[in-house]
Fold this sequence. Notes:
Chain A is of the alpha/beta class. In chain A, 41% of the residues lie in helices and 19% in strands. In chain A, strand 24, helix 23 and strand 25 form a beta-alpha-beta unit.
Amino acid sequence: MIAxxxxxxxxxxxxxxxYDEQAARSASSSVxxxxxxxxxxxxxxYALSVGELHAAAGELTPDGLLASIAEETNLALRLPCADxxxxxxxxxxxxxxxxxxxxxxxxxxxxxxxxxxxxxxFLTGLPDGSLPNCGDAVRYWxxxxxxxxxxxxxxxxxxxxxxxxxxxxxxxxxxxxxxxxELAWLERLVEVMPPVCRSFANQDGNSLQPARQVDGFLxxxxxxVIRRGLATDxxxxxxxxxxxxxxxxxxxxxxxxxGDRREVRWPDEDGAAIAGQIRAWxxxxxxxxxxxxxxxxxxxxEPQELDGEGDALNATWRVQFxxxxxxxxxxxxLARVWQEHADAPSILGQHLVNRRTHLQSxxxxxxxxxxxxxxxxxxxxPTGVDLSTNEAHTFLHEWAPLLQAQGFxxxxxxxxTEQHRHLGLELFVxxxxxxxxxxxxxxxxxxxxxxxxxxxxxxxxxxxxxxxxFEALATQGTxxxxxGDRWVDIDQSAAKKALxxxxxxxxxxxxxxxxxxxxxxxxxxxxxxxIVGLSGVSWIKRxxxxxxxxxxxxxxxxxxxxxxRPYQLRGLxxxxxxxxxxxxxxxxxxxxxxxxxxxxxxxxxxxxxxxAEGPRPKLGPTLLFVPMSLVGxxxxxxxxxxxxxxxxxxxxxxxxxxxxxVQAASQHDVVITTxxxxxxxxxxxxxxxxxxxxxxxxxxxxNPSANQTIAIRSIKATHRIALTGTPLENHLSELWSIMExxxxxxxxxxxxxxxxxxxxxxxxxxxxxxxxxxxMIRPFLLRRLxxxxxxxxxxxxxxxxxxxxxxxxxxxxxYKQTVDQMLFEIDNSTGIRRRGLILAALTKLKQICNHPAxxxxxxxxxxQRSGKCERVVEMLEEVLEEGDAALVFTQYREMxxxxxxxxxxxxxxxxxxxxxxxxxxxxxxxxxxxxxxxxNQPIFLLSLKAGGFGxxxxxxxxVFHFDRWWNPxxxxxxxxxxxxxxxxxxxxxxxxxxxxxxxxxxxxLLSEKSALADRIVGSGDEWLTxxxxxxxxxxxxxxxxxxxxxxx
Amino acid sequence: xxxxxxxxxxSRSDALQDDPAIDVERFWSTAQSLDEIGLPxxxxxxxxxxxxxxxxxxxxxxxxxxxxxxxYEHITTHVRDHPEEDRFGE
Lengths: 1048, 90
C-alpha cells in the first residue's frame, strides 16, 4: 500500500509518497545526491522513489503525461516519527498512538515539483471522487485547484500593481472573493487543512499558517494560469512592442501583466500618482465584503442545586462566555477560537477577523463594566467566571445592564425579568357585606366608602407567600434568595422593615377608596417593601379583574327594540355591575361603538316589571346632560330603542320651571337637558330626587372650575355615569374632573392630583406615575376601540348611522317662513309653475337646514347658527383626536365654501375642497395629498357629484353626508370612495338629519324601505312635485321638537 | 533531477513541533471530511471588472477597459475550454 501526499511551498507544489510499514520492508528506496552516494539518516526509509512517483501519478490521471511535466527533486519535511525508534509513522501507524510517543522529525523525500500553472493542470486533471492511493492532502489541494479555476471562469480577478520603489512596480493579476458565503466556505477549508500540507517550512515560520498557504496557493496559481493564457495569443504579446514604442502609462502597466514580463517602469514623477489611482480603483473590491466581528455573549446560569438553608450564601453561579456571529446566529466554539493564531490572517486580500484577538480585546473591554471577570481574563483561554450569589445580584442589577449598554449580548434565566424578581406587599381586602344589593336598595355598605377588612400579603410576581415564608427568606443573608424555581431580589434591611410593618399592622379596616389609593402606591406607607397591588374576594375581586369574565352575565332587556352587539352587551353588564355597587362608571368607547344605546339599555334594564317577588322598586329618574347638538339625537335614539322610557326634554325658552318641572321630572324616566342649564337651573334640578346623573360627551366638564362643572357635581344622585369618546389618558385634567364627578375624592384634591400625576406624567413622562394612575382608574373606566379584536369581529365593515340635529331658533324661523310662503304660493298655482315653486322651496329648505348663511348669503359670522354645523365640528374633533380621517360630502358648492370657513375657524385646519370647478390637476393633487399617509390632511371636503366616482380615498374611515341627495345610489357611490378594496378598517357613515324637517321625514321614508321609498330611488326630489298641498304639508311642516335653544 | 534538497532551517526546526494547532494524531487528515465541507457555493457574481466600474484615470489615451474586456473573455475561454491543448501545444 502506498500513499501520495501534496505539500505547497510557494510557488511550487510537491507531490511525494510513502509505503506503509509492511510494504516498506520489501521496497528499495534510495535518495541519491549529485555524487550518487546515499544521503544521511534523514532520508525517509519508506519514501517512494521518483520513478515510483511517476508511475503512481500516471495511474491517477487519464493523461499520463501530466506527471511528466514535473521536475524531480528532493524535499525535506517535518513528519511524525515514533519517539522510541525514530521511524516515521505513516497514517495507518499513527492512529491510536499516544501523543507523548510522537515527535516531528526532519526527513528527506523524493518529490515531483510542479510549477504553479502545471499544479492546476495536474490537480484539476485528477478524476473526481475518492482517489486511490492518495492521502487527504492531495484531495485537499484538488478542491482548492478547482476553486481557483472557478474564480477565473467567473472573472473574479483584476489587474493590480505592487510597488518596488517610487518608480518601479510589478504587474500582478489578483483574484478576489467577496461573496460572504464563499468566503465562509473558504474559511472552513482553511480550518480543516491537514498539517501535512504545511509540513514544509521556510525561514520564517509564518508561512506555515493555513490561511497564508491557501492565500498563496490561490494567488500564485491563478496568476500563472492567466499569464500563460495570454501568452498563447500573439494579440496580447503585441502589448510589449507597443509599450516599448509608445509613451503610454497604461501600456507599460499592461505589459507587466502579460507573459513573463512583470516589471512596470514609470520614470516620470506621475508614476506614484498613477499607482495610487490604480490601487484606489482596485481597492473598491476590498471594501465590498467586510466581515463583521462576532459578538461576545455573557450567559448567567444559576446554581444547579441548593440543599438547604444557608446554601444561597455558598452557592456558585456561572457567567459563561460565548461568541456568536454578528447576525445573532451561529454560536462559535470558544475552545477553538482560543486555539486560533494570534495575527490576522487574510485570504485573497480579505482580512479575516482574528477571532481570538477580538475575543481578548472584547473581554478587556467588558472588564471595565464587569470587573468580576478580571479574575479570569489573565488566564489562558478563559471560558467563563464563577460568581457568588451576591455577585450574581450585582450582575443582574448593575453589570448586565452596563454590558448591554456597551453592546454586549447578555442572556439571563427566564425568571430574571424585572417584574418577577421583586418582592412587594399586596393589600388583601374582604368586603363586610358580600351580597350585592338589588336596585333601589340602600347602598350604605357599598360604593367607594364601603368598609373593608384587610390584611397584608407578600407577593412576588403573581404569587403570594406567607409571612413565615418571607421571614425565612429574609434571614438567608444574601441579596438573592431561591423561591420555588426562581430567584428573587431581597434587600435585607427593607425586608426587616416590612416584617416589622406587617407585625405592627397585620390587619384592619379601610374604605374601598383608600384601599385603591394605597394599592396604587399613591400614599407613602413606609412599609419597607413597595405596595404592588390589591386583591380581594367576592365583588371586590370582580371589580378589580381586568377582564369582564367574572361579571354577572345579563341578557339584553326584553323590551329593547334592537339587538345589542356582544361587546355592547358586555358593556351593559359592566355598567349594571358598577351601578349595583354604587360606583361611578365611565364608558369611554370609541366613536360609533354605541355608547348611547348601552346607556339606554341600562335604563331599560332597571325598568323591569313588577314580579312575583314583589313590586318593582321605585327608582327616580335619570338626569342626562348632553351638548345642545345632541338633544335631538337622544330623543330619536330613545324613541327608537326604548319607546317605553318616558323622556322629558328640558331645554329651550319654553321649558318647565319650578314646581311644574319638579313634578314632571318625577313622572319621567329620563330628563334630557343641556350643560348650559346645569348652572342656570340648579335650584330646580336639586329639588328632584334623581336616581342617576349621566353625562354624554362628558369632556364638556373638563374645566373643573367652570360653573356648569361645579353645578353638576353638586347635584345629588345615587348613581353616576359618564360617556365620552375622548382618550382620557391624554387629558389628565379632564380625567380628574370626570372622575371627581363620578367618584368624589378617589383621585384626591385637584392640586394634589396635579402635583402627583398631571405634571410628572404630562411634563416629565413619568411612566411609573402613569402606571399608578392607570391602576387606580382601571376598575371605573371601560374603553374599547374599533380595532380591539373582540370588538372588531362584532362590527360590520360599514356602519351607517343617522346623526340627528336640531335647528337653531334662527333656522327654525327661516324654515317656518319659507314653508308658509311656499304653501301659500303653490296653493295658488298649477302645472309647471307649481312644480318649479316646489322644487325651489325644497332647495331653500335644505339650505336653511344646512346654515342660515347658505340661504341668506349674508356676511355675518358663521358660529353657532346651525345645529348641523355644530354637530359636525364636534364629531370631527373626535375624529382628529382618534387619529382617523374623514370625507365630508355636500351637494352644494356654496355650502362647501361655508364649511371650509367653519372648519378653519373651529378646527384650526385647512381642508381641501374638491368640487365641479376643480381642474384635473388640482383634483389629482388633492387626492394624492390626502391619500399620502405622511400628509397632515385628515379631512377632505367634496361635493357629492365631483367626489362621487372614479376616486380611491381609502385613507378615510369616516364619511359624513352633511346634506342628502335623497338618492341612496348616489350616496352609496360616494360612500364607496372609502369603503372599497384597499380599505383595511371599519368605515362609519354618518348621515346628518335635522329633526322635525323635511330631511327627517325623507330619512324615515328611506329607512322604512317602503313602496314609496322605491319610487324615490333614482328620481331625486321630483316625486314631491306630484303631491297635493296637504300631503306636502305633512312633509314640510316643522315639528315642535325641531328647535334647540341657542348653542352654548 | 534537482539535486538540492529543499530543506528547513534548523533554527526553526521546532516551529511545527510547538505549533499548538497541530494535531499530531490527525497529521495526515483533514480536520473534517471534505464531503462535509461540501462544494463551494458558486454564487452568481458580477465579473470583478464590471464591479469596479470605469477607471478614474485622467490622461488615459489607451482603450484600457476595452483591452481588459478582451483579456477576460480570452481567459475564461482558455480556462474552460482548452486547458490541455494550450499547455502542450507549441
